[in-house]
What we know:
rod-shaped
Amino acid sequence: MTPGKVAKTASSATQLFDIGHALTYSSPFVMALVDGAEQTIRYANPAFCQFAKATLDALIGTSIVECLPDHPECSSLIARVHDNGRVASYAEQATPESQSTASSYFAWPIVAKVGQSIGIMLQMTETSKFWQESIAVNQALMLSAVRQHELAQMAAELAAQMTVEIAERKKGEAALQASHSRLLLALEFAKASTWEWDLEKNLVKWTDEIRVLSGLEKTTREAPYRAWRSIIYPEDRGSVDRVADQAAKCCNELNVEFRLQSSDGLVLWMLARGRLDRADADRAINYSGIILDITERKHSEQVLLRSEKLAGVGRLAATLAHEINNPLDAAINALYIVKTNREVPASAHEFLDIADEELRRVAHMTRQSLGFYREATLPTVFRVDALLESALGLLKNRIAAKSVTIDKQFDENLRVNGIFGELRQVFVNLVSNSLDALNVGGKITLRISQTTPLSDGQSRIRITVADTGKGISPLQLNRIFEPFFTTKGELGTGLGLWVTRQIVEQHGGIIQVRSTIHRGRSGTVFSILLPE
């Protein structure tokens, strides 16, 4: 071989090596570049080296026939391409039952810039059934891996989205819980509760607040309407029914006040407000709303009403006192003239003295009403038994008319500091009430004693008025000191005991009462505690 040809061959080999390395190094197919004339290997990719079980250095310069002795078709294919310069291929045949490897060969020329072929690229591809199945399995595994990767990404995105949604939901639940807590707190401070009345099932549902008021079982949060209706004050049940029926027929809004019998026996005032839900124009299905405890408001209204009535009574009393005072003075003067007349028989003087005393008591009350009697505002020290004897003297005719026995248990040494006329009015009121409660032949016990020191370290004078009358019921007993409340029907004004308590408290005293209506031992006991 001449030097020029050797140089040319070396240049082609280098060029083929560079081309082969650039094109086939990363290919998974078995590929090599050979020169066309000598069919020696100028480059083999890693897949070819693995297939031939030799290193690249060992393969370069080796004949393709030596490297692939079991594949003689490669040499014929390379020669054909070298001769005609066109791409050629060849495929071995493999039976369907065969698990051995068959190959397909592809060869195409490598052309330099001048159009001259400088080498041939050879590619071998296994085509056996096992190889194809392996490729399919590998492709399936690769696709599965890709899908798993995609699913992992989707799962990660979904997990992130769910984390955000869970956080938002927890945030919403926390806000809802806070709102619910604020609502419960508002209901508690407002003494309110929510309720719902299912008209189709006739069931009433309520929250815990109303259960405390109603006294229904703690485990019960719903009950038939008749059970709920049973705790409504009997006199108010009809009005509640009428308002509910009217709301169902026309106005859809329910607003009704009623009384409720609480679990501890107290009567509470409630305000129920609600709205009606309809399935259609002709069918109401549900009431829902809120119920408020308005007992304090009702009591305030009643106190205000009593205050207005008392103010009216005061104005009326002042007017009457003013109108009575002048003719009363004339009557007292006329009586004085009669008493000093020597022609009046001695037997009449006793009755004239009684009339004079009674007229002066009436004059005292009228002047007190008008604010003219200043002397009565000055307290004095006097014996308690004298006070009670004076009160009994004013009522002796009524006592005699009913044949009432007066049991006096007096300690004559006890004294109090107060306004004699006002305290006498207290015991006149109490004894008078006992006389009204007694049948003919009853008994009144009057007792004066000294108490042991109480919690404040002071001892007091106890004055007791006890009778064997019909007694006072527990419900009435809680109200007897209210103005205008009376147990005597049209015969009473409802002011006697109210005035009595006012006078006692103005003297720094305490009034107590106990009573029973049990047959055979009925009666009432009033106790007045006054400072010494």
